[in-house]
Amino acid sequence: MKLTAEISMYPLREDFIPPIDAVIAKLNSFADMKVNTFATATTLIGDYDYVMAAIKETLAWSYNEFGTAVFVTKLIPGYDPS
């Protein structure tokens, strides 16, 4: 099944741009999903299990690198806008 996920990150720190940029770069490192970045969110499109694994890995990595952040995510199973 395909999955489209939209994710926004809100780091709980004053210098919030570096963690956001790093998370976007991390998401772009996953080869088997399409990543589109916009001013307020990043969309991930690909196989359901792959996208969910990428989100899981990225969230854990982000916490280890930058500490606490709020991630707001919308998931649309079965939707592929391309």
Features:
82 residues; alpha+beta; Alpha-Beta Plaits; four-stranded antiparallel beta sheet; single chain; 4 strands
Structure description:
The chain is of the alpha+beta class. 38% of the residues lie in helices and 37% in strands. It has 2 helices and 4 strands; from the N terminus they run E-H-E-E-H-E. Strands 2-3-1-4 form a 4-stranded antiparallel beta sheet. Strand 2 and strand 3 form a beta hairpin.
Strand/helix succession: EHEEHE
Supply the number of helical segments: 2
At the fold tier of CATH, the topology name is: Alpha-Beta Plaits
Average pLDDT figure: 97
Total strand segments:
4
Q: How helical, in percent, are the residues? A: 25-40%
| Structural Rg | 12 Å
Which strands sit side by side, in order, in the main sheet? Answer: 2-3-1-4
β content, as a range? 35-45%
Oligomer: single chain
Shape annotation? globular
Count up the domains: 1
Distance between the termini: 14 Å
- Name given to the CATH architecture: 2-Layer Sandwich
**Which sheet architecture does the biggest sheet show?**
4 strands, antiparallel
CATH hierarchy class name: Alpha Beta
In short:
The chain has 2 helices and 4 strands, in the order E-H-E-E-H-E. It is α+β, with helices and mostly antiparallel strands. The two termini are 14 Å apart.
